[in-house]
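TL;DR need structure tokens for one chain.
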Amino acid sequence: MLEGFKNIPKIPELQKRIFSTLLLLFVYRIGTHVPTPGIDTTALAAFFEQAKGSLLGLFDMFAGGALSNLSVFALGIMPYISASIILQLLTVAVPHLEKLSKEGEAGRRKITQYTRYGTVILSIIQGFGIAVGLENMAGPNGASIVINPGWAFRLMTMITLTAGTAFIMWLGEKITEKGIGNGISLIIFAGIVCRGPVAIINTFRLVSTGEMGIFVIVLLLIMMVVVVGVIVFVESAQRRIPIQYAKRIVGKKMYGGQTTHLPLKINMAGVIPPIFASSIIMFPATIANFIPHPWMKTVADILVPGKWGYEALYVAFIVFFCYFYTAVTFNPVDVADNVKKYGGYVPGIRPGKKTAEYIDSVLTRLTFSGAIYVSAVCVLPSILVSYFNAPFYFGGTALLIVVGVALDTAGQIETHLLTRQYEGFMKKGRIVKRR
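>> reply
TL;DR here they are.
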């Protein structure tokens, strides 16, 4: 793969896509440092220093530090992800949306349009809730976070944060269209990676003040290496179902008779389950952190990373979205029909319905294994991190997203390289044939 990447400068189209991706991510990072008007940044920074171990710290990680600055991108991409989850769930329940999902590109464009509308509505709700919450909060020294509270501040904050989320949504779509990789995942990836230097500085600060020992640092580094190794191994692992194609005679030529396989990944859903699970938990928890009400405070205290209430809810959502997203993206019936259509069959299994049932049973077991793997990677390191008082950046969720998105993007780059080499080979072949 590394040898192939050396050929990137030789392919203008791929070079242009990578440059577009980096440029759009750079624009996103600039936006995370543009503050929302009417905020006392000093008091806000002091408040977030206190809330470092809470769910707000996790939300700030996904937003790339935009929430702690209360920048125009403070809501991040999470409202868009929440809207996508809602639309996908409604697609199963609402016949009109289910019909649209089966209408090809036109239907997908319509569902994407509904997702955008849902993103704006969720951003308005969250933006207004954050504005009201900020008016009722103060820094450790009692200084008000909002300089001039009132409806003018609430409306301005709501509109600013909604516009910021809409712009991030547009950036993500442009990265997917004009760049390389999945735009939404890359935006989250960029936010996590850019928080790395801050986490490293905080780690050295904790060591210098004696709050963290050298042994703990070494243990965390070993844990990170092990987790990354497990992620790379499992994400690359496949369960291969053998497919045998019968021999067919077309005219005077014989086709088929070959054996191939149907590759099924252990983690078919990739990094989507932890992102979706975090998004679902963050929506009520963020509002709860900003609204000073007794039962809201109880909710905020329960939903703290490292506590059993949060981790149990997190695991439940991860398992659910592993099965749900796999069911949405992979249909065993369609796969079995395509195999039968081209004269293929699984040895020992009858084509058609029996093949679909067999593939579904294998996929169900794989999805269960994948859900356990994703839950373990996301939860166990986070519990250790909270126990050792380390920066939350070293949690398993961040590592899974960073490694998973990096592998997916590298795979797409490699696909572009292979496609270009294949086209070049065919062109050379045609030139030789003409001579």
